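Appendix B, Record 12. Input sequence as logged:
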Amino acid sequence: MKNIRAVILDKYKDDSQFEKLSDYIYKKRDTSSYCITLRCELEPDEDSQYPLEDVLDKYLINVTDHAREFQSEGKRILEVELESPYSIDEILAVSEIIGKRVYNVKNDEGMSLVIEDDVSYEHSLKPIRRWNISGEIEKLRNDTYIPRDDFKSKNYYLNQLLRNNNFLCQIAENYEMGKLLKPVDYYYLNVRRCMVGIIHLFQVLNADYDVIKKYVREYFSLLEKEDIGYWGYSQEIIVLSLAYLYDIEAEEIFWVKLKMPQIKDEYIDAVLDVMRNKIFEDSLETAKDFYFKEIGIVNGPRQAKGGLVDVFNEDDRRKAIEKFAKYLTTVKEKDYQSLLKHYDEISEAKYTYYGSQCFKLTALAKMLGARKDDETSNSRFIIEDFLWGEKQVMEVETLKSCGIDVDNLSATEKESLEDEPAKDTNTYHVLPEMAEIISNGDPQVYADFKMLAEDYNGFYEKHKAWCEAFFGYYDHLETDIHENILLIFAYWLTGYETEFTYGAYIDWKEETAEIVHWLKKAIETLGYPLTLENIDDGYTDEVLSKIDLTFQEAGYRLIWLDTGGDCYHLFIATNENFEKLKNLGNSIGFRFNIVNDEKPILEVEPENSCDSITQIRDNEVADLNEQEAKEKRKKQIIILIGIAIFLAGLLIMLQTM
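Logged structural output:
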């Protein structure tokens, strides 16, 4: 089997039946089945059974009912649809034989399968697209666009943009006229570099976010459709960094996973591993113990221990950012000095490709949850606009979506609203800080509630499936937005169909075992030094009281967020953090309470508190027993009266006889 390529069947175009995951991998809707269709040329001594049968065994996949053999230009062609009924992993694996030669060889053990590079593989070349950015260049000449980087002048950056634009247009024209003098993969490589240079120059020149995102997507489109050219460490780092910085969903760059196997394991360092895990698995974990350390623009990278590896292995978010900021100080000196020293040597065009502001380092800073007021923002290698921070302006429509009746504000209120800083105009600006406290510094939680605070509709659309399952399918804008945000905050953090378990959602009459179970999960997720042993069964409020008293011994409190219902949304916080939560919550109408709110904090020993609880319970039982005794005596008196009346009547009857 040679000249193996993927083809798109007509049935795949039916969106109601198939979901497209990449250029040639599809998922059958309402099933867990994934499929790919391959077409290959059979060699003279092959039949349609072997080596196909061995391929199916090797990759644990099936052939569907679509399998046909036909003649084309004197060649025997086999076309088969391959299916994995349970997982996409098998389909991703078998897709690696595209462009390979597959055949059987006889050896001492019988027949074995061989997969090797196919020198006869006919590339399906894609047209080289034109990027005519002349209009964008003219727009950027306006004085309102001030470069972020003062390494060179604004005119220099604009001329570099024009130069790259002309280069792309010339290559596209030569391609269309058949005038390419070198192999096409040489031009693809230079087009890719040129596109990254344009994206970086747009960033340096302070171009509009949406404009840059548009060209990032076009750059990705080229890479996705390109079936030739080298895919390596630097290429993937650039793609993943841009995708994360410009909020491009993992589903849009699913094709990257198909190219990942081209990078050998020894070239996957902690940085690439973290980026892959963060984007595709939403995790910052890495099993790698080294990273490629930059030692200057000219000298290139080398393997190193510590540094960024220590940053990724730090559990405390703030400490991780401190370590990252420290790392950036060394990068700043060595990298930037090398850039200055070798400026003539590397040529001006080289600078437009690398530059001092680094997409990779900025993406890592954002993944770590760095903010504009952190030490990281001081580095010239970090593009500050991508870091978490408060919006400076809030549009009227956003204010309305947050429940503010802008139309009926008085002139004084409107003037006050315009003059106040952004943190006071954004009704829910404290949400991310509150979520960060509750989650013990989870940057993803911070990002989620930052979005909810700043763009309620955007949050709803991004998590539409969850929101519709939670609220139902009614128009969420016609309901109480404040109540919606309150409920999202409470249920999102307590793990209601979400990945987060930073608290517990329990009923007012919950079983003790359930309460302990969910709070133990929260403690484990938060990493707090707390235990929940020997919590006896009891009424819900009694159990919660005992747990809070246990937490107090370690300096923590069991708190709950009042959502107006008959259930508890429980969280854990230190005394100091509870006060912060209480004050922040009060500013937006969220009420946080301590479970033992009516009892003094740590003024009584836990044992005494438990004794007093027991005493209260004993008094309640005594009162109940006394009441039951009174009811019993009343019934006895009524019975005696009845008997007396009956006897009196009987006596009268006997006397008259």
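The domain at 2-117 is CATH 3.30.70 (Alpha-Beta Plaits).
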